[in-house]
Amino acid sequence: MKRFLRLYMIEQKLALRSGDMLIFGVAMPVGVMILISMIAGQKQAGEGFTYLESSFAALIAVGICASAFMNIPLTIADYRDKRILKHFFATPCSPLWILGSDMLCAGGTALLSAVFMAFVSVVFLGYRMQGNVLAFMGSWLLTLVSMFSIGLLMASLCRTIKSVNAVTTLVYFPMLFLSGATIPYELFPSGLQKVANVLPLTQGIKLMKAVSMGMNLEGVWKIIVLLLGITLICIIISVKTFRWE
Amino acid sequence: MNTCIEVKDLTKSFNGRTVVDGITFHVEKGEVFGLLGHNGAGKSTAIDLLLGLKKPDCGTGTIFGLNPVTNRKAVFERVGVQLQSSNYQNNIRVDELCKEMSALYKEPEDYHTLLQFFSLEKLEKSQVNKLSGGERQRLSVALALINKPEIVFLDELTTGLDTAARREVWGHIRELKSKGTTIFLTTHYMEEAESLCDRIFLIKDGKKVTEGTVKSVIESSPYGNLEEAYLWYMGEEVTQ
């Protein structure tokens, strides 16, 4: 365990050093949050909640989105291409060590994004969560795990760096802009809302919104089951199709 | 003598093309064993099969009498591996890479000692990507030694290095040998094989051509040096 942590610490250091995750996953959502609160923070976005409240749960998903759909598939594809994964087979450790530590790194970046967002929102923007904070953390974790499983699936299905790059772009940007993560879902015309509903991240955001605003939670069971189902299916397919080189 | 690597009838095909074709050999403790052949002769695949990184179609490879697939942990605590043209994570520094590799073993060597041995101690804080070819290659050998291995596999150790850098690496390999480490290397440079290897094994299109000490291989050919003997064995025309 100690040795695994040492490996993880180095990978985490590398992840932070590269910087792009800090921009896309941490600085960007907080920047958008500040903008939204300046433009329309206290305006009603829907019945009984403001844009600030609505955007908090949505923008916290941006960190998850960047980690799951960029960081995870790109890192795994890169390590596979460089034969770093293969090299782990020629050591007493399993390559699962490096995969595990990189998943943990991606989770660490998403967590950093969420904590920073909460800090700025509560301290500077006057945000207060109406719902139960612990339940919100649970919904965040479920969204994170289910989106990570999709990222892992992308890494498993794409064989080359080129295809991973293409798929990452195709998945990341629609998820970022059409799921309601950056542009408030409430502003979408109803046709676009229907499109957005197909995206898995939209469901995660809906769940986090409902919990954070302390809304009636009757409908969320469907979303929870859906996200658990996505996680299960993606992990099974990833494990079955994964290639080390 | 003490046999530490044993390979019997190792065979592997990809898409109907036989890349390694029924090769059999053994390596004794403390010797430098060279697997020689052209590019694409099946050298790297043979190493992959022996290390259990790929599954053979038939035949077996054992290290210390153990199958590396089923005894991965036990075997790789005692075996160091440098894979052909190793690449590392972006932005990683030399000391970080050493620490990361050390974390994988139960009783690793102090990496400072290894960096010193390979004259890399001043580069400890440098980025691996910014090292020269020779420095990188020395680093990759140092990393293969981080678990104090009894056997070390070196695949195409000096490909892409200039003469001076190559000779420097050779010096380190000889020193390693004098310490009793068994060395298994692949190369297509005959000068390298002649200067380092105790015994050599020549393969062509995955099949054995000949094996023996460097001296005996040269003597069984009509030529006086290994390069010409090698070309003769490989069925190429030897031009003066």
List keywords for this structure.
heterodimer, A: 245 residues, mainly alpha, two-stranded antiparallel sheet, 10 helices, 2 strands, globular, B: 240 residues, alpha/beta, Rossmann fold, 6-stranded mixed sheet, 3-stranded antiparallel sheet, 9 strands
Describe this structure in words.
The complex is a heterodimer of chains A (245) and B (240). With 245 residues, chain A is mainly alpha-helical. Chain A has helices spanning 2-18, 20-40, 51-81, 84-89, 96-123, 133-157, 161-178, 190-198, 200-212, 220-241; strands spanning 44-46, 49-50. In chain A, β1 and β2 (49-50) form a beta hairpin. The longest helix of chain A has 31 residues, at 51-81. Chain A is globular and about 60 Å long. Chain B has 240 residues and is α/β, with parallel strands linked by helices. Chain B has one domain: 3-Layer(aba) Sandwich (Rossmann fold), CATH 3.40.50.300. Helices cover 34% and strands 26% of the residues of chain B. Chain B has helices spanning 43-51, 72-78, 94-102, 111-117, 133-144, 163-178, 190-196, 214-219, 226-233; strands at residues 3-14, 17-28, 32-36, 58-63, 79-82, 151-155, 182-187, 199-204, 207-213. In chain B, strands 5-6-7-3-8-9 form a 6-stranded mixed beta sheet, with helices on both faces. Chain B has a 3-stranded antiparallel beta sheet with strand order 2-1-4, covered by helices on one side. Chain B starts with a strand and ends in a 7-residue tail after the last helix. The model of chain B has no long low-confidence stretch (mean pLDDT 90). Chain A binds chain B through residues 3-4, 6-7, 10-11, 13-14, 17-18, 78-79, 81-84, 86-93, 97, and chain B through 51-53, 72-74, 76-77, 79, 81, 83, 86-92, 96, 99-101, 103-106, 147.
